[in-house]
Amino acid sequence: MKLKKGMRALSLLLVMILAGAMLVPAVSAYQADAYGFNTNDPSPLDTRSTANYVKNKLSSMGYNPSDRHYDDRALDGFEELKNTDVFFFSGHSSPGRLQFGKNSADRFTFIFADGTLLPRISNMPQNQLSNLKLALYLGCYTGITDSNLGNLVYKTSDKGVKCVIGFKESINSIAADYWARQFYDKLDNRQNIGNAFDSAWWALFLEYGNDGGISKKIIDGDETQIIDLY
Amino acid sequence: MNRISKCMVLLILLSSMATLCYAQSYDTDQNIGINDAENRLRTFLSSIDSEKSYDEARIISSGDFRTFSGDYYEFEMGIGNFKVDKKTGEVESAWFYQDDSNAGRSEMSESRSLKLAEEFARRHYSSFDNLNMKLSDSEKLEGNNGRTRYLFRWYDVRESLFGQDIYTSNYVFVAVESGKIAGYIGIERETEVSLKPDVGEKEAMEKAVYVLDLPADSNTNYEYNNKLCVCYFDEKQHLAWDINVDNGVDSWGYASGGQAVIDAHTGEVLLKNPYL
């Protein structure tokens, strides 16, 4: 009798575990981070909806995106960059520098490529970014070298990233938003990085008749990667 | 069930099937069906390269694609991405994915690339010789695997009463990479708006500076690139001033400027597109 009851309890437990496994979605081991900002300095800009769109697309591709990264500080972004599989930044930038949110002293914080200031990519251990499949720095001059702060694309590449994208000229914000959405749509359809870039760029021309600076890109690394995990 | 009821049921079934078949062939608003669009695309592709294998030309996915100036069927294939206008059945956008190898590829000069692009445009844009198509831009860009890409843009340009060039919404873009056509856009739309602007260029420039939050007193330092054009926003055609203002970089290296599109009849701001 006791054995029967025990068997019943065990069966019930197994059923509950199976049902639980079906209800709770599997959490991907692959991390992804998308950063957007709402700021008035040095000029009004809001890239949060772009970042949110990218975050949802990365989730659809099988990644486990962190919670929303809106106006985060550079130190947080730097730590995520070191340990993520896909990194997306859309915001204000200048050669060798990505602008992040404000710190407790109400000052903007930055990730630098090189130089003497922290946090800087050149200070990471060698091969720190070897798990990073794609880093996209969607901002003005992110592919240009500053004599003191270095070059974001090349320094990221030095640390082992598989592919990094930057831009050599100024970029219009609406064009950047439209292109980014198209780009991640294509990646989600299992296009490789290079083809997704071009196809999204061509769609931007079809919609606006110009590309807002997106064509002046620099892609360093393996652009034949398919980053969609499904 | 008597014989009349059976006939009624059969009639209802037949009419439902006929409606479904019609819907498959013809979308609403007299749009062509997706099957017709696919046939038009295959005709377009075979006119370019009849030797492409079936596998390369296999449709991976298809769906709707909306732009301000029209609705498309979008086809994703192994060889590229294509968009067919739902109303006319014209392939208005084609992007051919470039192979990864450099085998058999060599750089082509700008002049030879232009010749190739123009030949392609004449073959696929039926009004190329009937409109006043002017080459407005030639750009040298970085293509795939370090290859050189050229982008050529032609517009049907009209002249206003004051001698101002007006770029209509009839245009052709062709991208050439190492001697191969990489991309094609061919748009042809009837001009529905008056080509006489009520808002002057200077007024539009001042408005652009204002909406882009640029200081008005630095006006003399700005570099402008302006164009009076027929364009689409929110699915409506407008005569508009396309104003691009560049204010260089500040002491921190941040870019300052952007694009603003101002309706040349009403003065309405159609697009505010500052630099990131």
Could you explain the architecture of this structure?
The complex is a heterodimer of chains A (230) and B (276). With 230 residues, chain A is of the alpha/beta class. Helix content of chain A is 37%, strand content 20%. Chain A contains six helices and twelve strands. Chain A has helices spanning 2-23, 48-60, 74-83, 152-158, 173-188, 193-208, and strands spanning 31-36, 38-39, 45-46, 64-65, 69-70, 86-90, 93-94, 97-102, 108-112, 134-138, 163-167, 217-221. In chain A, a hairpin with a 5-residue loop joins strand 8 and strand 9. The longest helix of chain A is centred in the first third of the chain and has 22 residues, at 2-23. Mean pLDDT of chain A is 91; it is low at 20-25. Chain B has four helices and twelve strands. The mean pLDDT of chain B is 88.
Shape call of chain A: globular
Main beta-sheet strand count, sense and barrel state of chain B: 12 strands, mixed
Query: Which runs of chain B of at least 5 residues are low in confidence (pLDDT < 50)?
Result: none
The first-to-last residue Cα distance of chain A is 49 Å
Question: What structural class do you assign from the helix and strand content of chain A?
Answer: alpha/beta
Helices and strands of chain A, in order, run as: HEEEHEEHEEEEEHEHHE
Helicity of chain B, as a percent range: 10-25%
Mean pLDDT of chain B: 88
Please report the number of helical segments of chain A: 6
Question: What's the number of helices of chain B?
Answer: 4
**Uncertain runs of chain A:** 20-25
The count of β-strands of chain A is 12
Structural class of chain B: alpha+beta
What portion of the residues of chain B fall into strands of 2 or more residues? Answer: 35-45%
Radius of gyration of chain B: 24 Å
Sheet-strand content of chain A, in percent, reads 15-25%
Largest interface, with counts of residues having CB < 8 Å to the other chain, equals: A-B, 44 and 47 residues
